[in-house]
Amino acid sequence: MARKKIVVAYSGGLDTSVMVKWLSEKYDAEIITVTGDLGQKAELENLEEKARKTGASKSYIADLKSEFMEEYVWKALKAGALYEGDYPLATAIGRPLLAKLMVDVAIKENADIVAHGCTGKGNDQVRFEVGIQTLAPDLQVLAPLREWEFKSREQEIDYAIEHSIPVSVTKESPYSIDENLWGTAIECGILEDTTEAPPEDAYQITKSPIQAKDEPETVTLTFEKGIPTAIEGNKYSAVELITYLNAIGAEHGIGRIDMIENRVVGIKSREVYEAPGASILLKAHHEMEKLTLDKDTFRYKQNVSNQISNMIYDGQWFTPLFDSLMKFVDSTQDVVSGEITVQLYKGNITVLSRKSPFSLYNEELATYGTADTFQHRDSEGFINIYGLPYKTITKVRNQNQMGKPENALG
Ligand code: ARG
Asked: Are 82 and 267 in contact, with CB atoms under 8 Å apart?
């Protein structure tokens, strides 16, 4: 019988390196490593060689940056996805694409097992496995970190040395970091103490707002149907655009997020994120919608946005409901086109100007000046009818000597 083939999601870090060896021994299997490039700065150059030295027979490194931005991030942006009001969901958006990559390679290589290096208490295991189950229901998934014998990093390092696995000898960061073009997540170490502010060394890409440039800078973004396409009038690809905004935002201390969040498995965790480009784009996009969406659509979309954020967080990207909700979102974006200028200064993003051919803002209606065309008298009848149910309620309560509603003053 042919040896089993296992496709392993591989970063080159300690966990996944040890995993390659551990799986090949435990399952007597041929290991194929897969790495997706979503714009993380961790080096990818020597990764193939490193994987081979660790015992892999073959390794794939896929440049997924454009696909990530165009097929994943832009959807989340159009939806206005922010988990629990704060987290732009960078890691969560990347997982379904990485799950798809693993499935694609497994099919190509005719492998019947895939493995990932997520722990048993995080969200990423859920996102990977639900994604894989949906895309390839017959594929077996292994999560060695949930079951192997190692209880600490030291034990993993001992195993690596014993098996001549090349692990980086540089001093390990006390933090666990996951990075892609949409943002960076930083966990562990001192960050686990909710009473401690994140030390400066926890931040990987942004300058502290206190140390940021003393001069504000403006950025003018062009949106076409909910997607940013140009900066200062010059067209850029999605990858170029986010790379530029991350760099300029980082200089101004933009996009630092420190939050307590609810994980899928029920744990509350303290998370620190850096997402300068995402913060700028989410704010700018939201502002474009304020200008161009009608009141009912804008209000309704807030609920959809919240639902989509939860679904992305919970690993439900490849689901019928997600697709349906995204169709709704897309149908709202035809008018989300125009230009917006924001100012970046010491961690703040301030909107300076917005315009759109679809702007519903009508100065003649809004003005308090002499150009006013709004029919003030119309409001009287409108309010009489609008307030009618409440007037009726109070009358009935009075007849029954029930007193005023609890929250009424006096
Ligand atoms: N809490 C974030 C999320 O669930 C970040 C996860 C970071 N993942 C990691 N493997 N370090 O999306």
From this structure: no
**Does residue 194 sit in the same domain as residue 152?**
no
Which structural domain range is residue 285 located in?
Answer: 178-364
Instruction: Take atom 4 of ligand 1 and give the residue whose Cα is closest.
Output: 123
Shared-domain flag, residues 388 and 276: no
| Dist. CA 37–CA 311, nearest whole Å | 24
- DSSP letters spanning 78-90: HHT--BTTTB--H
- The verdict on the CB of residue 271 being under 6 Å from ligand 1 is yes
What distance in angstroms lies between residue 185's CA and the mean position of ligand 1's atoms? 6
pLDDT by position in tens, the chain (length 410): 678 999 999 999 899 999 999 999 999 999 999 999 999 987 788 899 999 999 999 999 999 999 999 999 999 999 999 999 999 999 999 999 999 999 999 999 999 999 999 999 999 999 999 999 999 999 999 999 999 999 988 899 999 999 999 877 555 678 999 999 999 999 999 999 999 999 999 999 999 999 999 999 999 999 999 999 999 999 999 999 999 999 999 999 999 999 999 999 999 999 999 999 999 999 999 999 999 999 999 999 999 999 999 999 999 999 999 999 999 999 999 999 999 999 999 999 999 999 999 999 999 999 999 999 999 999 999 999 999 999 999 999 999 988 777 776 65
Final residue of a structural domain among 176, 208, 241 = 176
Q: Helix 124-135 crosses helix 90-109 at what angle (to 10 degrees)?
A: 40
* Shortest-distance atom of ligand 1 to CA 89: 12
